[in-house]
Amino acid sequence: MLSALIWLPVLGAALVGFWPGLSASRARFLALAVASSLLVWTVVLFSQFDISNPAIQFSELFPWIETLGLNYHLGVDGLSLPLLALAGILTWIAIYSSNESVERPRLYYALILSVNAGIVGGFLAQNLLLFILFYELELIPFYLLIAIWGGTPQRGYAAMKFLIYTAVSGILILAAFLGLAWLSGSSTFDYKAIITAGLPLTTQLILLTMLLVGFGIKIPLVPLHTWLPDAYVEASPPVAILLGGILAKLGTYGLVRFGLGLFPETWALVAPGLAIIGAISAVYGALTAIAQKDIKRMVAYSSIGHMGYVLLGAAAATEISLIGAVAQMVAHGLILAILFHLVGVIETKVGTRELDVLNGLMSPVRGLPLTSALLVLGGMASAGIPGMAGFVAEILVLQGSYSVFPLPTLVCVVCTGLTAVYFVILLNRTCFGKLDNNTAYYPKVKLPEEIPALVLAVVIFFLGLQPTWLVRWSESTVAAMVATVQIDNEQQVAAVEAPAIER
Amino acid sequence: MVHFLLQTIWLVPCYALLGAILSIAWVPGITRRTGPRPAAYVNLLMTLLAFLHGLVALFASWNQPPQELLIPWLTVANLDLSFPVEISSVTIAATVLVTGINLLAQTYAIGYMEMDWGWARFYALLALFEAGMCGLVLCNSLFFSYIILEILTLGTYLLVGLWFSQPLVVTGARDAFLTKRVGDLLLLMGVLALYPLAGTWNFTELAQWATTNSVDPKIMTLVGLALVAGPMGKCAQFPLHLWLDEAMEGPIPSTILRNSVVVATGAWVLVKLEPVLALSPVVMATIVYIGAVTAVGATLIAIAQIDAKRALSYSVSAYMGLVFIAVGTGHSDAALLLVLTHAVGSSLLVMSIGAIVWNNITQDLTQMGGLWSHRPISGLAFLVGGAGLLAFPPLGSFWALLKLADSLWDTRPWLVGVLLVVNALTAFSLTRVFCLIFGNQAKQMTERSPEVHWPMILPMMVLLGFTLHLPLVLQSLSLLPDWDRVYKDVGLLLTWSTIFGCSIASIIYLGRMVSKPVQLFWKPLQDFFAYDFYSAEIYRITIVFGVGLVSNVIALIDRYLVDGLVNFVGLASIFSGESLKYSTSGQSQFYAFTILCGVGLLGMMLGWPFLSHLSFNLFP
Hints:
The structure holds 2 protein chains of 2 kinds.
Chain A: H1 3-18, H2 24-48, E1 57-65, E2 70-76, H3 81-97, H4 105-124, H5 128-137, H6 139-149, H7 155-183, H8 201-218, H9 227-234, H10 237-262, H11 267-290, H12 295-316, H13 319-350, H14 369-382, H15 389-402, H16 406-430, H17 447-465, H18 468-471, H19 475-496
Antiparallel strand pairs in A: 1-2
Helix pairs in contact in A: 1-2, 1-4, 2-3, 2-4, 3-4, 3-10, 3-13, 4-5, 4-6, 4-10, 5-7, 6-7, 7-8, 7-9, 8-10, 9-10, 9-12, 10-12, 10-13, 11-12, 11-16, 12-13, 12-15, 12-16, 13-14, 13-15, 13-17, 14-16, 14-17, 15-16, 15-17
Chain B: H1 2-7, H2 11-24, H3 28-34, H4 37-61, E1 67-76, E2 79-87, H5 89-112, H6 119-138, H7 142-160, H8 167-198, H9 203-211, H10 217-234, H11 242-246, H12 252-277, H13 281-304, H14 308-328, H15 332-360, H16 376-389, H17 396-409, H18 413-438, H19 454-476, H20 488-510, H21 523-530, H22 535-580, H23 588-606, H24 608-618
Antiparallel strand pairs in B: 1-2
C-alpha cells in the first residue's frame, strides 16, 4: 500500500525519462497522470486510516541488509499522514504549474517525480538508515532542478550552496543516527527498536544537538538559513514550491519524529533553547522580509519566520502545540505554494519582481485582477487572518505553547503583526496603486494558469473554516508522543511559572 | 414559525455572508456583460431578509430568558472551540440595528456609487462587515469575538482601499490595517493569557469566574490592559485613533457603517469583557483616562478640521471615548444605550454630508457655504442627526448621556465635567460644520447644487424619521432612565452645554463679528489640533522609522555577516586549495624538505614530555 507511493513516482520518472521518443506534451501528461494517481492513492490511504490508533499503520517490512540493520520498513502515523497529503497536492501543483514549454521536459518531469519519491520515502521510512537514504536521495534532483532551470546566472551558486548545506545536514544526521544505534547497543536501525533511555545524559545531549543542527539546516533555522533565500529565489516557481512547501517539512518532520520522538527525556532540556531559537527565527525572518525589495525574496524570508512557529510548537511539546506544529507545516506548505505560484505568474506577465517597479495590478481592465485578489488572500492567510488555514495552525501553536513558554510565545504573536507589515507593503506596492499607462500592456492571465492558485485557495479556505479536517489526523499520535514527555513538561511548567508574570 | 425564526437567528450573519459570496460572483468578466448593478441587488435582498428575520425574532425574544446555542467548530485535545450563539433580546436588537443601518447604507450606496464599477467588491465587503458584526453580537465567546474583529480588520483594509489607485487611499488602507492589527494582536495576547487563568473564553462563564477568582492582581492588570487594546484600536482611541481619520478616504456609504456600527464593535467587546476587566482597578482607571483624554482631545481636533468627513470622524472617536468612560466606571447599560443613540445620529450625519460631498465635488469646508436654500433636506438631516447625537432633549443621546452623567454624579463628579465639556465642544463642532456648509453666502463650488436623487434621499429620510422617533422606541422598551429618579439638574446642565456650544458656534460662524476664515488666536495651537496632535508625524519618526531601521540593519547583517561568513568559508577553502596546488612542484628537494619538517614536528610532539622535563631542569 505505502510502497506504491514511493515506487509509482520512481516508475513514472523512469518512464518519462527513458521512454523512447516521448514528446514534451506527452511527458507532461504522463507526469501529471502519475501525480494525479498518487493523489488518488493518498485519498484512499486517508479513507483507510484509523484516526484513533496512535501507532504506525499500514506497516511494510522487508529485511534488506540485516547485517547493517537496514530494513525496508515503511509505515505511516498521524504525524506523517498530513504531510503525505501535502506532498501529493504540491507535487501535482508543481507539475501542473510548470511552464509547458520548459526546456528538456523529460529530464525535468523525471526529476520532479523522483523528488516526490524521495520526500515521500522520507516521511514513510521507519528505519533510520532508510530515512537517511531517502533524505539524501532528493538532494541530487533538487540540485539539478535549481542549477538547470533556475532563474538568473546566480543559480549555479545557489544550487551549490543548497547542495553543500544539505549534504552537511545529512552527514550530521547520519552521524547522530549511527551514534544512536551503536551506543544504545541496538542491532537494528529500526525506529521502534531504538531506545535512548539507557544512555548517559551527556551522550544524549550531544546526539540530540547533532540531530537538531542537522534538521535545523534543512528547516532552516536562523543562523543556518542562508541557503534558503538564494535557493528559493533562484529556483523556478514550481521548484520553489517543492523546496519550501515539502522539502523544508522533511526538516521539521525529522525534528519532531527523531528529535522529540527518540529523546523524550532530553527534550525538556533543550526545549527552552529551541523555543528561543524559534522566536528568534520568527523575528529575524519577519524583519528581514520587511527590508526586501524583491517580492520572491520577501516570500522566501517569510518562510523562515513561519518555521519559527513550528519550532516553538515542537519545543513546547504540549498536545495542542504539537498538533498546531503539524498543522502549521501543512498550512505553511499550502500558503507558501500559493504565494510562490502567484509571484511566478506576476513575474512572467509583468516581467519584474521589483517592489519599486510593480504597481496597480488590481486594476480590473489592464492589470491582473484575479491574480491580485488571490495574492491578497495568500498574503493575508500567511499573516494569520482567521478563516484561513494559517490562523488555525498559529492559534493552536500559540495557545499550546503559552503555558510552557510564555515569553517566546508573545514574541511570536508580535511576529504575526510584523508578518502583516511586510505583506501590507507587498500588497500595497503590487496590487494597489496606479497602473503605469505606458508599460501596462501585460499578457492576459489564462484560466489554466490560475487553476493551481484557485485550488490552493479553496483548500486553504476549507481547512481554515473546517479545521477539524486539518488536525484530526494527528491527534492520537501526538497524544501518545506527548505522554512520553509529559513528566518533564510538568517540571517545565513549574519552572516557567515565575516568568509568566513578567510579560 | 416565530419560534423557529428565533432558534435560527444564527442565520442572520449567514444571509449576509451569502450576499457577499453572491456579490463577489460579479467579477470583472461578468460585470462587463451585465453591468455592476446586480451585485448590489442580490446583496440588498439578502440584507433585507436578514433584517426581517431579526425583526421578527426580536419580537419573539421579548421578555424571554436568554438562550445559548452551541455550534461546534473545533475540538482538539482538551481545547473545545464551539461557537456559542447567545439568543437574547439585546443581541437580536443589536443585529436588527446592524442590518437596518446596513440596509440603509446599501440603498444609499446605489445612489452614491452610481458611476463606479467596483460594485461587486464594494458590496461584498459591506456584506462581509454586516456578517461580521452580526456574528460578533450573537457570539458569546471572547475567542470568536477576536476572530471576527481580526476578519473585520482585513475588511477595513480592503474597504478603505476600494479606490486603490489613489495614493492617499493606499496609505489610509495600510494605516487602518496596521493600527487595528496592533490592537488585535495585543487583544490576542490577552486572549491567550486569559485561557490558562480562567479556563474558558465564554463571556458568561468568564463573568462567573471573575466573581470567584483569586488571580494575582499584577497578572490580571497586564492581561486586562492587553484585552483593552483590542477595543481601543476598534474604537479609535488615543493612541490608536489615527486610522479612523485616514479611513475617510474610503467611499462614504462605508463610512456610514464605520462611523456608526463598526467602531461600536470594540465597545461591544469591551462591555462584554467588563466583569473581567473590573478585576483590576488599574485597568478600569486606564479605560476611564483613555476615554476621557480621547473624548476631549478628539473633539478639539474635530473643531480644527477643514475636511467635512474628518470633522465628523473625530467626533466618533470622542463619543467612543465617552463609551469607554461608561464601561470604565462600570455603567455598561449606559454605554450600550450611548452606542445605540450615537449609531443612529452619527449615520444620519454622514449620510447628509455624503449627499453634499457627492455633487459639490469637494469636501473642503472652506470651499462651501450657503447651501441651506438649495439643499433643505440634507440640511434638515444634518440638524436632526446632530440633535440626535448631542444632549438635545428629547432626542436619543440626551437620555443616554443623562443616564451616564446621573450615575457618575455621586461617585466621580469630574467625569460629569468631562461629559459636559465634550458635549459642549461637540455641539460647537457640529454647529460649525453646519454653518460652514449651509450658512452664509454660496461660494464657487456650491453655487449650483441641486438636491440628490432618491436612492440617497430615501434612506436619509427613513433614518431621519427613526432618529426623531428613537425616544419613543426607547420608552416603549423601557430603556429610558426614570425621570423621577434622575438628578434633573444634570439634565439641565447637559441641555445648557448643548445650547452654549451651538450658540457660540453660530455667533462665530454666522455672525460678522469674527473675520472669516476663523483663526485661533495662536496659529501653532490651531495647527496642533488641525494636524491631529501631529500623531501621524510622531508615528512616522518613531515606530515606523524604528521598525524600518531595525529591519534594514538585520537585512544587512543577514546579507553581509551571516551569509558573508558562509561565503568566506567557501572562499577560504577554495583559496587554500588553489594555493596548495602550487606545492606539487615536482622538485624532490621541496618534497624532502616538507618530509623533514613533518618528521621534525612529529618528533617534537612525541618527545614533548621528555623535552618539557628537560627544560624544567634547565631552568629550575
